[in-house]
Amino acid sequence: MRNKEKRRYIIQLSGIVQGVGFRPYIYQKAKEYRICGWVNNTGARVVMDVEANRGALKSFLLDVIKNPPILAKIEKVSIRMHNEMGYNSFEIRHSDKELSKIKLISPDISVCYKCMEEVFNPDSRRYRYAFTNCTECGPRYTIIKSLPYDRKNTSMNPFSLCEHCRDEYSNPKSRRFHTQPNCCSHCGPTLFLMNQRGKEISCWDVIHKTAELIGEGKIVAIKGMGGFHLCCDAQNEEAISQIRQRKNRPHKPLAIMVKDIEVVYKYCELTQLEQEVLMNPRRPIVLLKKKSKCILPGNIAPYQNRLGIMLPYLPIHHMLFEGNTECLVMTSANRSGSALQYKNATALANLGKVADYFLLHNRDIHNPIDDSVIKIIENKEMFSRRARGYIPYAKNMGIQDEILALGAEQKSTFSISQNGYIYFSSYLGDLKDKDSYDLYKRILKNFTVLIHSTPKIVAHDSHPKYLSTRYAKTQEGHRIAIQHHHAHMVSCMAEHALSEKVIGVIFDGTGLGTDGTIWGGEFLVGDRRDFIRWGYLKPVLLQGGDSTIHEPWKTAVSYLYSIRHDPKSFLKNISHLDVDIIQQALAFKYNCHLSSSMGRLFDCVSALIGIREHITYDAQAAIELENIADPNINTGYYYLINQRENIFELDYERIILGILEDLENAVLPSIISARFHDTISNATVEIICKIRDSVQLNQVVLSGGVFENSYLLQSVYKKLKAKDFDVFFNQQIPINDSGISFGQIVIADEIMKR
Ligand code: ZN
Ligand code: ZN
Ligand code: FE
Prior knowledge:
With 754 residues, the chain is an alpha/beta fold.
């Protein structure tokens, strides 16, 4: 029979095949189907040379492609037939020294249930062992220093395998066959508990003791996979207010970790997709709608209607929930506005006044990383922060040059291209903070070493004062300045594989425009290379520099000044003298700048209606304005669209007058907020329709940090859909400034092609 004929194929699989147990998996399948030959892993690809009868080879291959290891993602398969070699066994060949062209490294994955069964089994040799992992779970990116992904190239290198662990590592039948971070309590990392002064607490089980301390209302800094968390009992209002006081973080929502999915249902409403994302082994924080009668303390997320929730992802986390605790505050451990802590010594030094105790371990975190944050909008997964579990992120965009794109400033990331792929960094915080800037440089260096990148082209924001721009100036190579809002637009286009011209609506906080003014309420028409500004929010003269972002009341004074109105009767908590000072400065144009920022208009309205005059975290005024909006109201204010030649200008004057009139009539803030949101979405859609009539384009991309406002995003999205537009918004690449580097690199590539 033909099927019995011998065949030999050399098969290459590419995609995410590093550190996901591919070699042992192939080995097992080869045994199952009686295949001879070998498998090798050259970094980017799995290469196998397989020989058997035709039928067996076919079944083997179908099985491998259809059911790869959980964490693997096969992107490409190539098969070549060769002359028989007469292999009579199957073997795994060791990692090749040769550097591959594309390197895809697996992200960190939460502990699997099989490992947790061992951790909770008193008869297992891994009973209560906090670093238990296997081929399908555990740390990857956070511990890797160089490729190939072998133990010696990770921060597991100092720990040599004990006899038992070595047996597992070299036994193809074991779940831990070739698990690089494999370890046990005899040979692996250990935990220790310290007080604020760095004195070790002696106890029979540090996790049990930690849980006890948390139960007593203490705050514990816990070193996890990507960095430290500050942890306290999420049902203890007093402990939470302690964290807030000590971190000087009065309002910013705190993420919580809950015991299991049943507990989530107690506090939040969730859809099928939200549940799936929450339970994904990558374990992101998911922003979920609070139940109207949520019984958790209000100070976890004051003035919010969503809670940031994640499920346990480390053995430590699971063990902390052994007692009665079902809900813990788990917020990134940093000083207010500063970078994530990830080293024992610096955490003790910097968090000594914040945490009562420290649960530490002796495995280094080589690549620190925050938790990811996802929300579900229009039944689509949308990243607010792409980080742990989803980094490294590599997307094949066919980019030929090696380009480094340095992102913006406040929510920094970078992107690097190599062999067609774009590698996108994790969220790295506000570069104006020195520690965050150092972290940014460190991760950038780590990453270029990891993939052996030597970019010849450096793309950066056109704002000369951004620290990322200043950093660009220190780099060798050809520099390309990219306009901020164009980068937002292209970040969304690239994600959705749009390359023809589109209409881009970019609503943002700040970004430098091509005319030297601040932009942020932009209607652009363009492609990946160029754009034309077709419309904008009417610019207003704003008094004050960067400080206005923290003081929405000043923005309100500027807006009202521009329409010859006195805001004193509306800004009830601001002294008349302070208002006078701003007004005088406006009269003399002292320290003023023109801005079409949509973010500032939201700040102005938030301050006017008395929601937030000063803020304590980024975009707080706009977020709280969104959260009070009454979804049953859909009667907007009047607005004007001024047209000059082919430019559409959204005039805010009548909108603000409408709001002032409502305020005088004591209309509820929830109604004013809803009417304002509705007005902006109506005006936005009207301008887009006018642009469509002129340019005959039907694809619209929505981007920019203001669209983190789900109420606004959904409203614009639905209205555009109703008018038969094809509408896209950022999902995998964040819509806020952390998506900028991705857009920059794509634009730089287009410019270089020219
Ligand atoms: Zn496992
Ligand atoms: Zn061991
Ligand atoms: Fe921006």
